[in-house]
Amino acid sequence: RKMWNTSVLPKALTLGVLCFLILVKGFYSLLSTGHKADDLIRTTESGQVQGTQISIKKLDKSVDVFLGIPFAKPPIGALRFSPPQAPDSWNNVRDATSYPPMCLQDGLIQEKMEKALKIKLPRVAISEDCLYLNIYVPGNTKEGDRLPVSQISVTSRCLRSKSEEEMLAMTKLFKIIPGVVDGKFLPRHPEELLAAGEFHHVPCIIGVNNHEYGWIIPAVRFWNFLLCTNFFLISTGIPPELGHLMIEEYLGDIEDPRELRVQYQEMMGDLMFAIPALKVAKYQHSDSPVYFYEFQHRPSLFKDSKPDFVKADHGDELLFTFGWSLLGDTTEEEKVLSHKMMSYWANFARHGNPNGADLLQWPAYDQNEEYMQLNLQLSVGKSLKGNKLEFWTKTVPQKMKESLLQKGRMEL
In this protein, which residues make up the domain named Carboxylesterase type B (predicted)? Predict the structure, then answer.
């Protein structure tokens, strides 16, 4: 007997399967060619658009796709560094069957990712003119139907006097371009806004993987140990001279190279992902529900492309939340996990709560610090990164305060 049943796959997330498939060239055979139809014309605030319908063979389901719908005027010329403006309207039916350009980015990153993961990704044009939405809805959805929405925020900034080629050349000088407090999108530092409660108080799912710095990030970026560590210390407001605290906390007197690698990867994963995510959850849960998770399963897809020591690497959970595991060459247990995760996410999109029938109860993250452990066997954990969280949120701030006081005395 099959361990999963696609007939109960949440309708709102059937479209999620496609979101991953369109990225991986090897899965195109799972889709049948889309076709235009008069009943795929929809009316937006700016004008009408015509999409296409694509069938997902293995699930015997279809997805209505509307590509390249503008949500703002192109941020080019005088609109560089300017607040977004509403898009111009159009009179004719706009063709929405081809992908718009991606925002400006270094194509070398994609090449490195392909090499590291041994996959081939399709090439998409890049341009500043990239403020478009690609919308996927369950097949046969009628105009006016109310559907849950998953939302992603995107920003695009360029220097007004530079060409696209010059902009790309400049970005190659930086490993990462940090967020900028510009007074509009970010009026103040994000942590100040969180501490003041100046954010939208809505339910959230927040989570991390248990090996965020396991493979893909260092493999693609080839970061130098000291430069990488110092960069993230500075970006989090920690003076590099206090970096020794991290070394003592995570590496101590370890001499074995393998154990040093394990501890360094945990340190970087905590600094970059786990601790910031937990801090955001703690700021938010007092006013609105937060559901926290740690994804812990290594996808079988990467059995031949990543070293054996890698666990749930950065981004691995997306394969399961967007349904790749329901269609790809995966184990039955992975299909079950993917189905459960998609159910949680669909319930959350609909109701602001991931829980539902036949699912393990996912407790809200509160003072008890309970969270969902997403693995082949679901379970509820408690106090993720407990001692390390205390180190980052109590010990480090106290040492920073002492360091500032000492500097002040020296200056006097």
Answer: 40-149, 155-392
Domains of the chain: residue spans and CATH = 1-149 (no CATH), 182-412 (3.40.50.1820)
Would you state the pLDDT for residue 171? 72
Nearest to 274 by CA among 312, 324, 325, 318: 312
- Check: CB of residue 393 under 8 Å from CB of residue 236: no
CB atoms within 10 A of CB 170: 13
Nearest to 372 by CA among 357, 356, 360: 360
Question: How many Å apart are CA 32 and CA 57, to the nearest integer?
Answer: 7
Say how many C-beta atoms besides its own lie within 10 A of residue 27's C-beta.
16
- Report the chain's terminal Cα–Cα distance, integer Å: 77
> Going edge to edge, which strands form the sheet with 204-209?
204-209, 290-295, 370-374, 379-382
Question: Cα(309)–Cα(311) distance, rounded to whole angstroms?
Answer: 6
d(CA 229, CA 402): 22
What is the token pair recorded at 332? 């039955």
Q: What percent of the chain has pLDDT over 90?
A: 49
- Write out the two tokens for 402: 């002492």
Q: How far apart are CA 163 and CA 161, in angstroms?
A: 7
Looking at 45-54, 118-127, 254-263, which range is the least confident one?
118-127
Residue the block writes with tokens 């039916």: 93
Token code pair at residue 148? 């849950």
Cα 128 to Cα 2, 21, 78, 157, 159, distances in angstroms = 47, 25, 13, 9, 11
In the structure encoding, which two tokens stand for residue 317, read together?
């959970």
Position 225 scores a pLDDT of 61
Kindly tell me the burial class for residue 246, based on how many C-beta atoms sit within 10 Å of its own C-beta (0-12, 13-18, 19 or more). buried
Q: In the numeric block, which tokens belong to residue 238?
A: 């920690």
Distances from the Cα of 404 to the Cα of 142, 184, 400, angstroms: 61, 30, 6
In angstroms, the Cα distances linking 101 to 75, 128, 135, 155, 186 are 13, 8, 15, 15, 26
Amino acid occupying residue 31: L
